[in-house]
Structures are given as structure tokens and as C-alpha cells.
Design goal:
The structure holds two protein chains of two kinds. By secondary structure, chain A is mainly β. In chain A, a hairpin with a 6-residue loop joins strand 4 (31-37) and strand 5. In chain A, 0% of the residues lie in helices and 50% in strands. Chain A contains no helices and eleven strands. Chain B contains no helices and twelve strands. Classes of the chains: A mainly beta, B mainly beta. Chains A and B meet through strand 4, strand 5, strand 9 and strand 10 of A and strand 6, strand 10 and strand 11 of B.
Chain lengths: 114, 116
């Protein structure tokens, strides 16, 4: 049984639109991560989140991206004004428990920007 | 900065052959963690194994085994008696310790195709 689920599985949007991707851990996780994988390429780190704040972010995670955990359960990634190059698979990862241990990945959200 | 290199872009074998996937890493941390993930055609990332830098004992888990060599900064992964279902992209990943946060740094991946 997966530790993490993500919704939606596939999102199609027009360039310039805002999208929100959601990650739902099954158990009480404290660490959360977003990664991105452009088709055919390697997996790239975007941001890590702990104790309701960003703990680390990559150079990819610019001002158009934001993350939050609004209800203490869902962990969301918002892209404010999507660009064509944002088309990718977005993975949420979270280790079970309260330590940054092995990161188990959600099934991913495929974002297509037209 | 951390770096993971998987020099093999693609490997093709026949079922029941053994196959080894190579991984070389770079890190300034003295404590770090190494992982292998599998990405089947369905696209999800499946955790396979994890190794801590302070434990160089190599292990076998079913058909999987790994060879961690700190002296050469390598963390190779072997599948014994490969099966068609092993066909996937395999990613080696590194998580640093004291200086690198908890992000995973991935290699480029190796596409493994197991033919019947």
C-alpha cells in the first residue's frame, strides 16, 4: 500500500493558468518533498517542507512556485502562471514518521501545459 | 555539490541473465545515504534499496544485490536471473548528510530491457 497518494493523476492546462497539485500522505508524515521529471529525463528536486515551512529549495523553484499544507493533511504545490516548459511529471515524496529517512514517492501527476 | 553518474544509458539482456547497473557518486559529506529506485513503464518511482555510508557491508535481497565501495565512490546494483518484469528505468540517488540537506540527487537513469 502506498504511503503517499497524489491528485490529479493527469492535469491539462493552458499556458498562463494556475495549477494546484495535491499530495496526501496516509500516515502522520512530517517531511515532504516535490520533485519534477521532464519526459525522458532524470528526476529533479524542487522543494522540501518540514514543520510547515520550506526547509530547502532548488534553483528551479522560483517565484511562480509555492507550497503549503493548508489543512495539516494535504500538501500542495501551486504553479501560478504555467509555462510550456512546466510540462512534466511531478512527484511528491515523504518518508514515514518524523525523520528524513527513505523517501517513498507518490504515483505522480502528469502536467501538460498547452 | 552532490552528483550522481550512471554511465550506462541503456542495457539490454536476455531473460535469466545477470545484470549490473553502475552508479558513481560525489559528495563532500562524510555521512550520506544511497538509494536505488525503479521506474517501470507505468511511471511510478519504486524504492528498492538504501545504503548508509557508514555501513559498507554488501547484501543480497532476493534477486537483488548491491556492491557499495566507498573507496571508489560506487554503488552498483545487480539483478540476478533477470525477468521481463524487471524492464524499467533504474535510478541511483544520493542523499547527503551534514552539508547537503535531505534532498535526493538522482542520476540520469539506466533503461534496462529484459527480452524473453
Amino acid at each position: 500500500e502506498p504511503e503517499v497518494t497524489q491528485t490529479p493523476s493527469h492535469q491539462v492546462t493552458q499556458m498562463g493558468q494556475e495549477v494546484i497539485l495535491r499530495c496526501v500522505p496516509i500516515s502522520n508524515h512530517l517531511y515532504f518533498y516535490w520533485y519534477r521529471q521532464i519526459l525522458g529525463q532524470k528526476v529533479e528536486f524542487l522543494v522540501s517542507f518540514y514543520n510547515n515551512e520550506i526547509s530547502e529549495k532548488s534553483e528551479i523553484f522560483d517565484d511562480q512556485f509555492s507550497v503549503e499544507r493548508p489543512d495539516g493533511s494535504n500538501f500542495t504545490l501551486k504553479i501560478r502562471s504555467t509555462k510550456l516548459e512546466d510540462s512534466a511529471m511531478y512527484f511528491c515524496a515523504s518518508p514515514p514518521g518524523g525523520t528524513p529517512d527513505t523517501q517513498y514517492f507518490g504515483p505522480g501527476t502528469r502536467l501538460t501545459v498547452l | 555539490a552532490q552528483k550522481v553518474t550512471q554511465a550506462q544509458t541503456e542495457i539490454s539482456v536476455v531473460e535469466k541473465e545477470d545484470v549490473t547497473l553502475d552508479c558513481v557518486y560525489e559528495t563532500r559529506d562524510t555521512t550520506y545515504y544511497l538509494f536505488w529506485y525503479k521506474q517501470p513503464p507505468s511511471g511510478e518511482l519504486v524504492f528498492l534499496i538504501r545504503r548508509n555510508s557508514f555501513d559498507e557491508q554488501n547484501e543480497i535481497s532476493g534477486r537483488y544485490s548491491w556492491n557499495f565501495q566507498k573507496s571508489t565512490s560506487s554503488f552498483n546494483f545487480t539483478i540476478t536471473a533477470s525477468q521481463v518484469v524487471d524492464s524499467a528505468v533504474y535510478f541511483c540517488a544520493l542523499r547527503g548528510g551534514e552539508t547537503s540537506g535531505s534532498r535526493l540527487t538522482f542520476g540520469e537513469g539506466t533503461q534496462l530491457t529484459v527480452n524473453p
